[in-house]
Design goal:
There is one protein chain. By secondary structure, the protein is mostly beta strands. The protein contains three helices and 18 strands. The strands form four sheets. It has an eight-stranded mixed β-sheet. Strands 5-11-10-9 form a four-stranded antiparallel β-sheet. It starts with a strand and ends with a strand.
Length: 274
């Protein structure tokens, strides 16, 4: 098995970026979900309620993050923590009062024009502290603005099987970006990733934190923001989590290695937990 593709999402719920290699730090993939769009009360905003967020492209270059759309041009902000930036308490799911750095009025005004609502962009800085709360978490496991765990893994075989079933229902297949994974693996059986307690990729060891529950965001086209019924309709027919109503696709992982380097093409091996 090998790494088929790598992806980072610099701003939670905005469009992601494909990369050929990535560094790992204590929060996951460097550059992944280090920014967040919040409302006036500091509540996180996502495509779940604002599908137009999918129309905003992100790009990382050196120390800068650039946001752009076809209709509104672009705006850039620094990726570097600023000890003098105003601190904003923000909320992500049950984690409240997380201290993040406000990125300023220019990018806030730009996002407000694009999304049509008052909002701010905030960035992880030196005061940010968010432990992983999944049952598999251990002391020293931390996460960025991601939903539940630092790294999401899926496989090409799982997507192929899902799309085979979607076609049987007479619908168009969906691309992998609907699931916003970080790491996509090729060369395994469909949904084999759900059975791996851990994976080893070179010197990087990743511990499973359980399947990823999927929501309405997966029905959102990651370029136009338009919504459909797939893949949730088909996932509900064969990927329900035992004992509940949630459906799953992909698996959450936590990096045992708080540093490291991954590249497309790297060998991947399931392994026991450390």
């Amino acid at each position: 098995m090998r790494i088929h593709s790598l992806h980072i999402h610099p701003v939670k719920s905005l469009r992601g970026c494909d990369v050929t290699s990535v560094e790992i730090d204590e929060l996951g993939f460097v550059g992944d979900r280090r920014f967040l769009v919040v409302d006036r009360q500091g509540e996180f905003l996502t495509q779940r309620t604002i599908p137009a967020m999918a129309t905003v492209a992100t790009a990382l270059s050196g120390d800068s993050l650039t946001l752009s759309t076809d209709d509104h041009g672009s705006v850039s902000v620094s990726r570097i923590s600023d000890p003098h930036a105003p601190l904003c308490p923000v909320n992500v799911w049950r984690d409240s009062g997380l201290l993040a750095e406000d990125c300023g009025n220019e990018v806030a005004a730009w996002l407000q024009r694009v999304l049509g609502l008052r909002c701010r962009l905030v960035r992880i800085g030196g005061r940010f502290h968010r432990p992983v709360t999944k049952p598999a978490a251990q002391a020293g496991d931390f996460v960025s603005f991601a939903d539940a765990a630092p790294i999401l893994i899926a496989s090409t075989a799982s997507l192929d099987e899902l799309n085979r079933r979607i076609r049987l229902h007479g619908n168009e297949p969906v691309p992998m970006n609907r699931f916003r994974p970080n790491l996509v693996i090729e060369g395994c059986e469909p949904f084999a990733e759900e059975d791996w307690p851990a994976v080893q990729i070179g010197s990087v060891h990743l511990r499973s934190a359980g399947p990823s529950e999927r929501c309405i965001m997966t029905t959102t086209d990651q370029y136009s923001g338009r919504r459909g019924v797939e893949p949730l309709r088909t996932l509900a027919t064969f990927r329900r989590i035992t004992g509940g109503n949630a459906v799953c696709f992909g698996v959450n992982f936590i990096q045992e290695s708080k540093s490291g380097h991954l590249s497309v093409g790297d060998l991947v091996a399931p392994s026991p937990p450390l």
